[in-house]
Design goal:
CATH class of the largest domain: Mainly Beta
Number of strands: 57
Subcellular location: Cell outer membrane
Distance between the termini: 55 Å
Strand content: over 45%
Helix content: under 10%
GO cellular component, one term: cell outer membrane
CATH topology of the largest domain: Maltoporin, Chain A
Membrane topology: Multi-pass membrane protein
Family: Belongs to the TonB-dependent receptor family.
Number of domains: 3
Organism: Pricia antarctica
CATH architecture of the largest domain: Beta Barrel
Number of helices: 7
Length: about 900
């Protein structure tokens, strides 16, 4: 330190003598050249010589025209956007420094004096009140291997004592952003957002930073900060990642965040859970979590906290996917090799999401590897899968391609059973994603997806349905506090039925819906206490309610084509993640949604207060294309709060309101891929719901164990149901067949999860009730006398246990057990004859229940060896689905024959199903 002070005083004496002379002026012209070249030009026209290291100078080019200006003014301009400072030592020497600057004087307090100048006998120039930092090359003289990084450019004008460090954190393996990673200094801390961005205030001078996140290496850096600046982290995955729980969250996210009812499932780490026919299924794993279930083993869709299947917003890279399953829900329609994760919101739904009442499933696909070619493939008993990651511009962009299909048709044709040879059951899906990092502030992602199913249950009917979607996302960093995303999407869903029957009744039937949307999402990091998200969105719906046409020249079917529907749904939103104190955190959001039913349309007007039927029609209105038929809208407040009782024990509460302007039309007990969708219009109101949640969240033994207990209550208005015996398909006046009433759901969810150790997994139990009330002054619009009755998906008790036991790093056993109360069903109570005809008398709707459901699955998993240098890494899975051979009923139905009512039960998998699947990654 002493030798540095003496050197400083030596420079001070020389600089004082030089300051007495006049600084020369020069003229200089720089045209698209480097800073180094500009320095050489100054040396050519003056007596100055510059002292610096070439690697300090940036590689970009500069331009400027300077006429009779001082050298110091020219240097100030050409170096203003760099971290390089300069110091004119004497009439022949200019010293360049990186980040820091050379001082003309010591602070008044340097030798312990509070007032007065330096005791050196030298005239004193302007005194900087900031401390002078004397740093050794290793950063503060500490004997350590920690990397030292200099940030910002020190200026005499900036008297701040603290600066803002910002940047991005990415995964070294796949270059994906790492969210919810903690960056901690001795005095402050920050957490990365969903895009891996962080912002951290640091005091001037030396700071020691550490990164912390579950499954990611911890890294330390010594940061010497002189001004606001940027520091990016590229981190490796930690070895411990292999031992993580199947459904992984951040170390203490469940306790720390304000949102209630959230879960995240990692696609890769769901591979050990035994599932039917060896297919990884991230959506089936979701049903093992509290509050999420299905109506049956072969039912599509999800019932979340007592809601209908149409009340879930399922997004694939921001675009809506209407039916994310293959073959009646047995397989997911998502490629497990291209899927990164799914974030599920069942309680506190962020204000940016709208249009559904119960939940959001936000599914994200992987970005392609921009550095090297990679892939993954699997071969199973009925399906094959391949995914490739192809670099396009090394280090910047990549293309990911995924394809998956079944060869079950070939298996069915090979069977000796004659009744199955004419059956058909096939599906495939393809996905393509292009990700491109344009520069440090801009990145682009393009995603396309298509899936197709065809199946024939009987020899005369062929069913088919498909999903298609496209999304484009542009992410832009405006500055260190503001980032934004512009998202364009298009989604479509279609199904068709081809019928070849006797008596000239062959027909083709089809239905379709598509939507095109745009969304602008902005993020503003105001401070550590306030983090804002705001924006707006809009989507245009086009619905083809259905049409039937004769198939072949001999068909007698009369063509019918229901008029198309169109609607515009828009929303504006803002939310604030507000940190009141270290204990109290709020997430406050407000959304305003709007919907316009658009023409061309010819809606009926019915007599007010009367049932909607042919006798109560007053008028038929006419609207041209694009005209507004009916408008709806409303405020949707979203508020949640977290309070720390102890550092690892929190209580959370939330309130959530939502509107839904689109509905499914189905009188089936379970959801079906041929259910149709209906927009709100003049006669069908949008649904709305208010949900209240309260929960306790506790972690034990450094987040090894997680325990949560959460209760909820939800009121639903204008829930859509159907009249007894309703005809929903090909009905031009569908409002005469449906009813709108009240719904209420409530429940208690318990989860205990072990994240580490040889034995890991979770136990989830849900007690939940779901009721509907369809009341009216008219008996034809009443169900069950106008009283509340159990919905089709009311299952009071739901228990799931998922366990994984690691014998070694390569071998493990997994088990999955499910128990659910049987769903409600309407039974016939007897039969009677009236006017020479047989009739069946049924009970109140959903008064009885089918038998309870339970199932045990087991699997043995074998990883390939962990050698670093090998072509591919393999993974074998041997699983047995429904080990107990439980004949779980999918549905119970009744047939009347000669006045006698007979009950029948259908099951999907009534025997144990063993499978073996081989996966390899290269």
């Amino acid at each position: 330190m002493i030798h540095r002070i003496l050197l400083f005083i030596f420079f001070l004496n020389i600089s004082f003598l030089y300051s007495q002379e006049q600084e020369p002026t020069i003229s200089l012209r720089i045209e698209e050249n480097s800073i180094e070249h500009a320095i050489e030009q100054i040396e050519d026209v003056t007596d100055y010589r510059f002292y610096y290291l070439k690697e300090w100078l940036p590689k970009n080019t500069i331009s400027g025209n300077y006429t009779e200006m001082k050298v110091s003014e020219i240097l100030g301009d050409i170096l203003k956007n760099t971290v390089i400072n300069f110091y004119i030592l004497d009439k022949s020497s200019i010293i360049l420094t990186q980040n820091k600057r050379v001082y003309d004087s010591l602070p008044n307090t340097f030798f312990g004096r509070k007032e007065g100048g330096l005791n050196t006998g030298i005239a004193q120039t302007t005194v900087d009140t900031n401390p002078i930092l004397f740093m050794d090359d290793n950063g503060g003289g500490k004997n350590t291997k920690i990397e030292t990084v200099f940030i910002g450019k020190e200026t005499i004008q900036d008297q701040r004592k603290a600066f803002i460090l910002s940047g991005y954190v990415t995964n070294k393996t796949d270059e994906q952003p790492i969210s919810n990673l903690s960056i901690i200094s001795s005095k402050n801390g920050a957490t990365t957002d969903d895009l891996g961005f962080y912002e951290l205030p640091l005091p001037r001078g030396e700071n020691l930073l550490q990164t912390r996140s579950l499954g990611i290496e911890n890294q330390k850096k010594r940061v010497i900060i002189y001004n606001d600046g940027r520091l990016d982290f590229v981190l490796d995955e930690s070895v411990e990642r292999l031992n993580e729980v199947i459904v992984e969250a951040d170390a203490a996210k469940n306790v720390e965040e304000a949102l209630t009812g959230t879960n995240q499932i990692d696609a890769e780490e769901s591979k050990n859970i035994p599932l039917v026919l060896g297919e990884r299924n991230i959506l089936k794993v979701a049903t093992a979590l509290p509050g999420i279930s299905t109506a049956g083993e072969g039912a599509t869709g999800f019932n979340v906290r007592g809601g209908k299947t149409d009340q879930n917003l399922i997004l694939l890279d921001n675009a809506v996917i209407y039916n994310p399953t293959h073959f009646f829900g047995i397989f997911q329609a998502l490629n497990p090799f291209t899927t990164k994760n799914v974030t599920i919101y069942t309680g506190s739904i962020p204000a940016e999401y709208g249009g559904r009442l119960s939940s959001v499933f936000d599914i994200t696909t992987k970005d392609g590897n921009v550095d090297k070619f990679a892939g993954e493939a699997s071969i199973g008993p009925v399906t094959g899968n391949l995914a490739l990651e192809i670099p396009v511009i090394k280090g910047k962009s990549a293309l990911m391609l995924g394809g998956r299909g079944t060869y079950s048709d070939w298996i069915l044709r090979s069977l000796d059973e004659e009744s199955l040879k004419n059956s058909k059951a096939s599906f495939y899906d393809v996905v393509a994603k292009y990700n491109h990092k344009i520069n440090d502030k801009n990145e682009l992602r393009l995603n396309g997806y298509y899936s197709r199913d065809q199946f024939s249950i009987t020899s005369d009917s062929l069913y088919g349905y498909n999903n298609q979607l496209f999304s484009a996302e542009w992410n832009h960093e405006i500055n260190r506090k503001n980032t934004g995303s512009l998202i364009l999407t298009h989604s479509g869903y279609d199904f068709d039925i081809g019928y070849d029957g006797p008596n000239s009744t062959d027909f083709d039937f089809g239905f379709g819906i598509n939507e095109t949307g745009i969304k602008l999402k902005m993020r503003y990091l105001h401070s550590e206490a306030h983090k804002f998200t705001y924006g707006l969105s809009s989507k245009l719906y086009n619905v083809s309610p259905g049409g039937i046409s004769p198939k072949g020249a001999e068909s007698n079917i009369i063509p019918v084509d229901i008029a198309k529907e169109k609607g515009l749904e828009s929303g504006i939103f803002i939310s604030d993640n507000f940190k009141v104190s270290d204990r109290l955190l709020f997430d406050i959001g407000l959304r305003y949604s709007m919907f316009q039913a658009l023409g061309e349309a010819s809606p009926r007007v019915y007599e007010p207060g009367m049932p909607k039927n042919e006798e109560t029609v007053l008028d038929t209105l006419q609207f041209k294309g694009g005209e507004t038929v009916k408008s709806y809208g409303g405020l949707e407040p979203r508020v949640s709060a977290r309070y720390f009782l102890t550092p690892d024990f929190s209580v959370k509460a939330s309130y959530n309101r939502a509107y839904q302007y689109i509905h499914t039309l189905s009188n089936n007990t379970t959801a079906s891929p041929i259910d149709t969708w209906k927009l709100s219009d003049l006669n069908i109101k949008p649904q709305s719901a208010d949900q209240y949640s309260l929960g306790l969240f506790k972690n034990f033994k450094e987040n090894t164990y997680e325990v949560s207990l959460e209760g909820y209550y939800k009121n639903i208005n204008d829930i859509l149901d159907f009249k007894t015996g309703a005809q929903l398909l090909l009905n031009e006046n569908i409002e005469t067949e449906v009813l709108q009433g009240l719904g209420k759901t409530y429940g208690l969810e318990f989860l205990i999860r072990k994240n580490e150790g040889k034995l890991n997994g979770w136990l989830a139990y849900t007690y939940a009730r779901s009721y509907i009330k369809l009341d009216s002054d008219f008996s034809e619009e009443q169900v069950n006398g106008g009283d509340y009755f159990a919905s089709n998906y009311d299952k009071p008790h739901d228990l799931s246990v998922v366990a994984n036991y690691k014998l070694t790093r390569r071998f493990s056993f997994s088990a999955n057990f499910v128990y659910q109360t049987g769903r409600p069903v309407t039974y016939p109570l007897g039969s009677y004859r009236f006017q020479n005809a047989d009739y069946v008398f049924y009970s109140d709707r959903n008064k009885f229940r089918i038998p309870d459901y339970y199932r045990l699955d087991l699997s043995f998993n074998m990883e390939g060896n962990h050698k670093i240098k090998k072509f591919a890494h393999s993974f074998w899975n041997l699983s047995i689905y429904n080990v107990l051979g439980r004949n779980n009923p999918y549905s119970v139905f009744f047939v009347t024959n000669n006045g006698e009512v007979k009950a029948y039960q259908s099951s999907i998998f009534s025997i144990p199903i063993p499978t073996i699947t081989y996966n390899f990654k290269f």
